From TrEMBL:
It comes from Blastochloris sulfoviridis. This is VOC family protein. Residues 5-188 form the Glyoxalase-like domain.
C-alpha cells in the first residue's frame, strides 16, 4: 500500500553550505552519509517525513542508467546541471515496494525494477545499526525534472530518532508539498496512479491530493507566486517541485528564528524564499 509523504530530495551544490542554511533556519541536520553510487546526503527529520539534502560527492562512482533501472546518482547529477539547486525528487511511503512497482507497471506509469540498498548508520550513543530501503520508481514522461518513487523502509526503528525531530524553529509536521505546472490538470492521471489516490480536489488555487501524511498540491506558476510571494521555478516541461509546507507549533517562534530570511504572506504563513533556501521555498504555517 502507498501511504503518505515520505521525503523529498533537495539537490544542492555544496552539502556543507546547505546544511548550515537549514541549521540557520532552525532545523536539526544530520551528519554526512555517503552512497556507494557517488552521492552524499544529510537528513532533516520531521515526524514521519524527512528532507534529504543531496549533492554529488564522488562523480567517478556514478553509474549510467540502464533499461528499466534508474541511476539515482546520474539523475540528480544531470538535474543539477539543468536546474542548479532545488527539489528534485518526490517520495511517498509504501509498505511493499515490489507490489508498488507492479502497480506502476499495470497503470503504465513505470516499468522499472525495484532498487534495494542498505548502509550503516549510528545511534546517538555511537552504536552501529543497519538501515535498508527498497525503492520503486514511476515516471511522468512529460515531467523530466521531477523523479517520482516510493520508499519501503526495512528497519525504520534504526532510521527514525525522535530526538532529531525537535527543531528550534518549532516545525512539528509536514503539511504538504507544492508542485507547479503550466497546466495542472494535465498531470492528474499520473499523480492519481502514483499516489494511489484517485480522489482529487480542484480549488481556485489548483489541484490538491490529500494523502495519509500531507497534501500534494499543483498550482500554475502565477498562482504560486501570488500565494507565496516568490517566483516559481521555471516549468519548461511539465511538473516542478516548488515548495515544502511545515506545521509550526508557534509561528511567532518560527518568525524569530528565521528572522529577515522569511517573508509574510496574506494567508498567515511565513515563507523562506528559494533565494535564501538553495532553490526551494520553505513555508511555515501555524499548527
Amino acid at each position: 500500500m502507498i501511504r503518505g509523504l515520505d521525503h523529498v530530495v533537495h539537490c544542492v551544490r555544496d552539502l556543507e553550505a546547505a546544511g548550515a542554511t537549514y541549521q540557520r533556519l532552525g532545523f536539526q541536520v544530520g551528519v554526512v552519509n555517503r552512497h556507494p553510487w557517488g552521492t552524499w546526503n544529510r537528513v532533516v527529520q520531521i515526524p514521519g517525513f524527512f528532507i534529504e539534502l543531496l549533492s554529488v560527492g564522488e562523480s567517478d562512482k556514478i553509474v549510467p542508467p540502464q533499461p528499466r533501472h534508474v541511476s539515482f546518482g546520474a539523475y540528480n547529477r544531470d538535474w543539477a546541471l539543468r536546474n542548479g539547486e532545488g527539489l528534485s525528487c518526490l517520495v511517498l511511503e509504501t509498505d511493499n515496494a515490489r507490489t508498488a512497482a507492479q502497480g506502476f507497471r499495470a497503470s503504465a506509469v513505470g516499468d522499472y525494477e525495484p532498487f534495494h540498498f542498505s548502509r550503516q548508520g549510528r545511534r546517538p550513543d555511537g552504536s552501529a545499526v543497519t538501515v535498508a530501503f527498497t525503492l520503486a520508481f514511476a515516471a511522468d514522461t512529460g515531467s523530466p525534472d521531477v523523479c517520482f518513487f516510493v520508499c519501503e523502509q526495512h528497519f525504520p526503528e534504526n532510521f527514525w530518532n525522535p530526538a532529531f525531530q525537535v527543531h528550534p524553529n518549532g516545525a512539528t509536521a509536514v503539511r504538504g508539498i507544492v508542485l507547479v505546472a503550466d497546466n495542472p490538470s494535465d498531470h492528474h492521471g499520473f499523480l492519481g496512479s502514483f499516489s494511489g489516490r484517485r480522489e482529487m480536489h480542484a480549488t481556485s488555487l489548483g489541484l490538491v491530493i490529500r494523502t495519509a501524511r500531507g497534501e500534494i498540491s499543483v498550482m500554475e506558476p502565477s498562482v504560486f507566486a501570488r500565494v507565496y510571494g516568490c517566483p516559481a521555478p521555471v516549468t519548461a516541461s511539465g511538473l516542478r517541485l516548488a515548495a515544502l509546507r511545515f506545521a509550526a507549533s508557534d509561528l511567532g517562534l518560527a518568525r524569530t528564528v528565521v528572522g529577515r530570511l522569511g517573508i509574510e504572506t496574506g494567508r498567515g504563513a511565513l515563507v523562506v524564499t528559494p533565494a535564501h533556501a538553495h532553490g526551494a521555498a520553505l513555508v511555515f504555517e501555524q499548527a
